[in-house]
Every structure is written in structure tokens, then in C-alpha cells.
Amino acid sequence: EVLDPAEKVYACPELAELGRAFRSCAPVELTESETEYVVKCVKHVMDSYVVLQFDVTNTISEQKLVDVTVGVEGSEPELYGEEEVLSVPCKELKYGIPGSCFVVLARNPDVPIAPAQFSCELRFTVVEVNPETGELEGDEEGFVDNYPLEDLEMVPADFMAKVAIGDFRRAWEGMA
Questions:
Q1: Is the model's pTM score more than 0.85?
Q2: 3-state class of 149 per DSSP?
Q3: CB 21, CB 46: distance < 8 Å
Q4: For residue 13, what is the DSSP state?
Q5: Rounded Cα–Cα distance for residues 97 and 109 (Å)
Q6: In degrees rounded to 5, what are phi and psi of residue 58?
Q7: Which of 18, 105, 128, 163 is surrounded by the fewest CB atoms within 10 Å?
Q8: What is the pLDDT of residues 59-108, one digit of tens each?
């Protein structure tokens, strides 16, 4: 069974009006797999938007993360606007259970596609929990924290989809 890589985007009510993904890229690791928070990003290209799906896993058993978002700041505001159009947080991340949050960027159709770099930062509230029971320990409000991530690149290849050609030779010879 083939799963649609944009399935999580389509399941999010806040993102329903954006339409279908033209292309979804392979996940990009924004942290090492041994760190306290493991983050991967899947880029979904749509007609007018790019949806960045951040898959986050909390690897600290004594913590629960609440209101998890990723702050994104781009190097090319003329391509993707000055700021994000929409940010959809992950309500909570318990130890070892992955969750997703999303950032929507508007594409400027009047500017040719060019490479762009985005600095990313994981933002969340930490609530201390008992690692054995998962029950709250200490302050239920928790404390706000940030975690720097690796930079994310958008390249022209992210906007190109594979096209199946039955007979390459015939297609090549048929080109003008």
C-alpha cells in the first residue's frame, strides 16, 4: 500500500483550504538522531504555498512538551514573503511519541524559483512529568524553551516532479 506523503497535511483542518500537494520531498533531518529532540522536515509544494511539516520526537522521559512550534526565518523574503502565513502547533509531545507541527509559507509566483535558506528554531513549553507514570510533577505551567535546529534549504529541485515516460527514445526524438 502506497501512502501519500502529504497525508498529515490533508488531515489538518487548518490546512484544508490550501489544496493538493504538487510534490512532497523526502524528509530532511534538522537534528542528530541522538539529541534530546529529534526533528525532521518534509516540504510539501502546492500551487501558491509551501507547507513545512516538522515531525518532532521528544526523547526525554522526564518531560512532556506542550504547544510545540517551529519558528522559521527565510533568507529570501521576495520568494516566500516576510513571514509565515500560518503556523499549526502540535498540542503536546509525550516521551517517544512523534508529533507534527506545520508552517505555511506563501510563494511569490512572479519571482523565478531560486535557492533559499531558512533558519529554524523549535519552540515549546516544558512540563516535568514522572517518567514511570507520565503524571505531572511540579509546576503545571512549565517553562518556555527554544531549541536551535539545522538550517533548512529550499532548492529548485524541490519544485520538480518525476514524469513517467514509457519510451524514452521516442520521447527524445519527438522533442523539437
A1: yes
A2: coil
A3: yes
A4: G
A5: 38
A6: -90, 120
A7: 163
A8: 999 999 999 999 999 888 888 887 788 999 999 999 999 999 999 999 88
